[in-house]
């Protein structure tokens, strides 16, 4: 096996696992902000209970987001040292900004939010969650700036074979950025909404305690999902224009523009296979089908009237069974975007072959197997824990549990954790 | 401009080692055979700081990529096993600490604690080997790539790795002495004091092996600075021991923190103006200036970092202030 293929496989594995978790993080944190804000404004304890229950799931999910995120960051240097050597002057900037502006603050805020219940004033505690959410969106934005630059390199000039930054503004107005960012963010909202609706549906099907609580979160989840799926579809189709303009070969090399570009590359870089694997377009087709299927969530909204959705029960089952769909769709979407830029790391500028680190295949294979096993095992463990905590209900989640009142014996080992 | 960014890179790396250093130290100390309650108390002491500590690594690598892209690629790919090992360790600690209490079964928790312990050891060992790799030079060829990974397998790399594990353990024990309720602090304070001679031995061993290694002698550009490093390390460790004996855990933590921050600065200074010294081709050594991104990139990042740094430090300081003091029965328990 050659190093390049192994490095690409590792990138695909790590990125996919990473995205399955960050997409939930981004969606849930938005809904959590809404719930905690409602709690502070109205003083209704229902919102605090909802925030603690969903916050608990959010925090468990976040663990894998951060763990895989760290691996993602190191992977560029470990496996793709050519990327930093040839285009690091440009591509490195948005990534550096992301770590400082977003990732760093997000984790700092989240640590204080988790441990700040009953310790900080309500307003400060709420502000921390707002901080977590804002930096999470900033993180998504800067990562998309970096990724869009790989799809369509702009704002640089090549001197002595190395790309130098000339116009940072061009990175922010990149045609492959705007609609894609909207698409990703609304996909995250869709996933967050669907997770909330599906878990609530499970509790309502099982007739567990806390009917009122899960009724509320079912409604929030479904309305969010419906609004989000329309945004997903809108931003998704709006991408075809700009993407086709800057990456004509993305969905196959048949069009005249694609043929012209391939002829130009052949003249500049020599003959080679410049069309991406068909995997990219096939995945895209399935993603669009899934997207239309999920559009049916609008049909469930009228059933919210007088709780028909709960009384009829089968819509609850539909909601629960549909949960894997948005996850499948987001992975297929990323495969289309990433595989579609093959054989380039930076489209038309740097090939994957030039960018891969000159390490031996045995080292790369060990790394691929090791990290895939490590992250895969952690991902499965994390999902099991999420499912267990989701099923346990909102009776007394450890997150935000009030400390023992003074005078009573302190119990550092709460009974129910 | 290059120098300013190099200093900032060093600052973030040093902060990472000092802050996450006590995370890993506490992780290592989970092995000291205490009961379930004791292990949980240690993690509660870490509690609110844990996420904020680990993230210094992310920021440090962000700066490395943005401001020193060439170094990022060559260093990480060129020292692949050390970086990958440390990375696996960091992932295990991150996941282990945050997930261990999500199960109610004490046996499952104990298993997670072993994961945290192994992860902490791996992380400290990996970063120690990376530090040693800088000091002993790498086989960088004329084409700019580091050849192979066997250059990492030296007695010096092993000695530095073990020394870092030992110093991190002292640091973690000192942190717990400062943070646990007074009664438990006395016990862990004794552990910290007993660990100091171990760390001193490990540092001495690494020093001797380093002095005997021709690669280290050749790679170091400023021998005086390099010799100063073990001297200051020993001084810091002795100061920590003295402070612990006088029940001044705050000062002891400052001393052990200095023992983790000093190597970053002094290794950088000892190699200056180089950052990667080639053992095979003197012309292929990489200077800090050559490793840095071009001027427009550094200028842009400068404008971003300038207003941001006070905010980053301010919010971290807010975290330390809000959760200062010893833990007690009312301390929030989550990990």
From TrEMBL, chain A:
Subcellular location: Cell membrane
Pfam families the UniProt entry points to: Cyt_bd_oxida_I
GO cellular component, one term: cytochrome complex
GO annotation, biological process: aerobic electron transport chain
Record keywords: Cell membrane, Electron transport, Heme, Iron, Membrane, Metal-binding, Transmembrane, Transmembrane helix, Transport
Region (Disordered), start-end ranges: 396-417
Gene Ontology MF terms: electron transfer activity; heme binding; metal ion binding; oxidoreductase activity, acting on diphenols and related substances as donors, oxygen as acceptor
Composition bias type Pro residues, residue spans: 399-409
Transmembrane segments: 20-41, 53-71, 91-115, 127-150, 180-205, 217-238, 278-304, 316-336, 356-385
Mode of membrane association: Multi-pass membrane protein
Principal place of residence: membrane
Family of the protein in this entry: Belongs to the cytochrome ubiquinol oxidase subunit 1 family.
Protein name per its UniProtKB record: Cytochrome ubiquinol oxidase subunit I
Organism: Micromonospora arborensis
From TrEMBL, chain B:
GO terms (BP aspect): aerobic electron transport chain
Transmembrane segments: 6-31, 43-69, 75-95, 115-136, 156-180, 192-212, 224-244, 251-275, 300-323
Stated family: Belongs to the cytochrome ubiquinol oxidase subunit 2 family.
PANTHER family: CYTOCHROME BD2 SUBUNIT II
Gene Ontology cellular component terms for the protein in this record: cytochrome complex; plasma membrane
Protein name according to UniProt: Cytochrome D ubiquinol oxidase subunit II
Main subcellular location of this protein, as a coarse class: membrane
InterPro entries xrefs: Cyt-d_oxidase_su2
Record's subcellular location: Cell membrane
Keyword vocabulary terms for this entry: Cell membrane, Membrane, Transmembrane, Transmembrane helix
GO molecular function: electron transfer activity; oxidoreductase activity, acting on diphenols and related substances as donors, oxygen as acceptor
Pfam families: Cyt_bd_oxida_II
Membrane protein topology class: Multi-pass membrane protein
Origin species: Micromonospora arborensis
Lineage: Bacteria, Bacillati, Actinomycetota, Actinomycetes, Micromonosporales
């Amino acid at each position: 096996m050659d190093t390049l293929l192994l490095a690409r496989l590792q990138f695909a594995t790590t990125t996919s696992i990473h995205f399955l978790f960050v997409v939930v993080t981004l969606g849930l944190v938005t809904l959590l902000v809404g719930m905690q804000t409602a709690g502070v404004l109205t003083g209704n304890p229902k919102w605090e209970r909802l925030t603690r229950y969903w916050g608990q799931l959010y925090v468990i999910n976040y663990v894998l987001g951060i763990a895989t995120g760290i691996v993602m960051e190191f992977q560029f240097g470990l496996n793709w040292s050519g990327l930093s050597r040839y285009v690091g002057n440009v591509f490195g900037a948005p990534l550096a900004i992301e770590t400082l502006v977003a990732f760093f603050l997000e984790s700092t805020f989240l640590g204080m939010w988790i441990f700040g219940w009953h310790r900080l004033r309500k307003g400060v505690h709420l502000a921390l969650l707002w901080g977590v959410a804002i930096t999470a969106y900033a993180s998504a934005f800067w990562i998309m700036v970096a990724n869009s630059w790989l799809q369509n390199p702009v704002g640089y000039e090549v001197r002595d074979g190395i790309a130098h930054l000339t116009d940072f503004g061009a990175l922010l107005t990149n045609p492959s950025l705007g609609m894609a960012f909207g698409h990703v963010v609304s996909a995250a909202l869709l996933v967050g909404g669907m997770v909330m609706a599906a878990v609530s549906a499970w509790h309502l099907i099982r007739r567990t305690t806390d009917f009122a609580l899960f009724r509320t979160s079912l409604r929030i989840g479904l309305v969010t999902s419906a609004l989000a799926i329309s945004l997903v579809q809108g931003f998704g189709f709006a991408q075809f224009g700009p993407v086709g303009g800057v990456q004509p070969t993305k969905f196959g090399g048949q069009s005249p523009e694609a043929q012209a570009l391939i002829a130009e590359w052949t003249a500049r870089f020599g003959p080679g296979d410049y069309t991406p694997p068909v995997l990219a377009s096939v995945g895209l087709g399935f993603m669009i089908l899934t997207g239309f299927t999920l559009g049916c969530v609008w049909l469930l909204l009228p059933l919210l009237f007088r709780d028909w959705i709960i009384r009829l029960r089968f819509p609850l089952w539909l909601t629960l069974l549909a949960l894997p769909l948005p996850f499948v769709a987001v992975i297929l979407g990323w495969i289309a975007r990433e595989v579609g830029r093959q054989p380039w790391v930076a489209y038309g500028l740097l090939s994957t072959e030039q960018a891969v680190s000159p390490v031996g295949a045995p080292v790369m294979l060990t790394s691929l197997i090791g990290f895939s096993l490590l992250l895969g095992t952690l991902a499965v463990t994390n999902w099991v824990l999420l499912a267990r905590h989701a099923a346990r209900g909102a009776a007394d989640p450890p997150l935000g549990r009030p400390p023992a009142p003074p005078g009573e014996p302190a119990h550092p080992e709460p009974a129910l954790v | 401009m290059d120098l300013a960014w190099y200093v900032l890179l060093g600052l973030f790396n040093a902060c990472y080692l000092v802050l996450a250093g006590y995370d890993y130290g506490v992780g290592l100390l989970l092995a000291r055979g205490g009961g379930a309650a004791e292990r949980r108390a240690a993690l509660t002491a870490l509690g609110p700081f844990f996420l904020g500590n680990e993230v210094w690594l992310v920021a440090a690598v962000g700066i490395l990529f943005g401001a020193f892209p060439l170094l990022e690629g060559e260093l990480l790919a060129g020292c692949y096993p050390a970086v990958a090992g440390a990375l696996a360790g960091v992932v295990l600690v991150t996941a282990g600490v945050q997930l261990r209490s999500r199960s109610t079964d004490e046996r499952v928790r104990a298993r997670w604690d072993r994961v945290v312990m192994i992860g902490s050891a791996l992380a400290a060992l990996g970063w120690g080997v990376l530090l040693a790799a800088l000091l002993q030079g790498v086989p960088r060829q004329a084409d700019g790539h580091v050849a192979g990974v066997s250059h990492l397998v030296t007695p010096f790399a092993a000695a530095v790795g073990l020394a870092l594990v030992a110093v991190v353990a002292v640091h973690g024990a000192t942190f717990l002495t400062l943070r646990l309720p007074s009664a438990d602090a006395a016990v862990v304070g004794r552990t910290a004091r007993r660990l100091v001679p171990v760390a001193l031995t490990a540092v001495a061993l690494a020093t001797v092996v380093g002095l005997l290694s021709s690669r280290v002698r050749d790679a170091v550009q400023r021998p005086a600075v390099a010799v100063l490093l073990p001297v200051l390390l020993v001084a810091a460790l002795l100061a920590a021991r003295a402070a612990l004996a006088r029940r001044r855990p705050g000062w002891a933590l400052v001393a052990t923190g200095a023992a983790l921050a000093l190597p970053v600065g002094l290794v950088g200074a000892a190699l200056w103006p180089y950052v990667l010294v080639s053992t095979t081709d003197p012309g292929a050594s990489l200077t800090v200036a050559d490793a840095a991104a071009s001027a427009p990139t550094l200028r842009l990042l400068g404008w971003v970092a300038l207003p941001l740094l006070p905010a980053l430090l301010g919010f971290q300081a807010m975290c330390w202030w809000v959760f200062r003091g010893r833990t007690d029965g009312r301390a929030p328990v989550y990990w």
